[in-house]
Amino acid sequence: MIEGVKRAGLFEWEVPIGFVPGMRVPGRFFLSEDLGQTLEAGAVQQLANVATMPGIVGNSLAMPDIHWGYGFPIGGVAAFDMTEGVISPGGVGFDINCGVRLIASPLTGDDLAGTKRELIEEIFKAVPTGVGARSARTLSNKDLTGMMTDGVGWCVEHGFGLPSDLVHCEEQGRMEHADPDAVSAKARQRGLPQAGTLGAGNHFLEIQIAEEILDAPAAAAMGITEGQICFMIHCGSRGLGHQVCTDHLQILEKATKKYGISLPDRQLACAPVESPEGRSYFGAMACAANYAWANRQMITHEVRNVVAKTFGIADEDLPLVYDVAHNVAKYERHTVDGRERELCVHRKGATRAFGPGASDIPPVYEEIGQPVIIPGSMGTSSYLLRGTATAMERSFGSTCHGAGRVLSRTQAKKDITGKALREQLAKEGILVRAHSDSVLAEEAPGAYKPSNEVVRVVDRVGLSTLVARLEPQGVIKG
């Protein structure tokens, strides 16, 4: 382990106050010995840097998929007091509300036999992918404003979803306090043609099979059975979200000086939560988050169209299990030292994991906790988990978000070619569709931590518990 870091439990490590000057609280992360071999010193330094920020509450936290990011580490969770604390774009990231959703189906593996390639090709035609991908739909500025303020609600109202989709999204697919006036013309310009597109990088759309049920009552509540075919969608707020982050970083860098905030890294640029600059960023970020939910909803609409037509079933036969955000800041109420407080919780590459009885959970999940969806990397398992009371007590209701990179995209391309990877996955029965082999190499399974070890840690610590294992059958890469 990195010098200065102390073991605090079997899978728990503490970065003590003093690791870097000015720390107000300790850092704490959850990691196994195996995952510790890939831990970057820079990510731990970032975790400690976050602990120096004004108004931070509890600990600066990181999940087992921790790795180096912009300012905050990816896999990081930090909560700030609403009066004395700050809000920071670095704690959210550039792909605001990058998130993931899972759609169930009545299909089994046998239904895919002989149709899998055709199904992948049809979905690939229906869902635009790749850098700068543009939607076939023409949206007006009024439509875009509707997406930014009402999220999934706008989609359902305009025929891109089912009413039941609303309750099966975190925050019902819409954050309050969205302020379109805080979104620049350039961000709007980037968002207009990209609604309903997958994008590039680590974004994907997978056909999966529920290979193993690990918690039968919870799986039953989520409508998941062994051998069932599901569809997983992973993407975010596209160019609009990136531009919102870029625009407001410039504003908050000035605000950091204006309010006399001393930081060890300029990438932690921030402003008091209740300051004009802080409220403006939150309003713009909420717009981007709502746009991201709407984006995943419009992709869901296209997937339902293709699957329903291919197998002669109805949209209602393809229910949304749940949709979770990975990169977001929210105002939430949590109990700290026996007292309930409103906090500004930043999750950057982390998933909300609210436990049984918590607020904002669909009635059907109230007794088991919210679904937590952890995607693997192309060729590796994805997992369905559920939120816990332990997460509420220890991590502001948060858990990991995915496998977490261990190789840069450049290094990944040196280690394997896209063609070789495609052939290797085909031998395993996994069909892959992408615009280029280069994209495949960048996102090779070897570029990521093993997803099974990441979820094993959060399950053992109790930050979320395993419900089902899902295996990829077909992959569309962004």
UniProtKB/TrEMBL annotation:
GO biological process: tRNA splicing, via endonucleolytic cleavage and ligation
Cofactor binding summary note: Binds 2 manganese ions per subunit.
Top enzyme category: ligase
Active site: H401
Keyword annotations of the record: GTP-binding, Ligase, Manganese, Metal-binding, Nucleotide-binding
EC number: 6.5.1.-
One MF term in the entry's GO annotations: GTP binding
InterPro entries noted in UniProt: RtcB, RtcB-like_sf
Protein name, as recorded: tRNA-splicing ligase RtcB
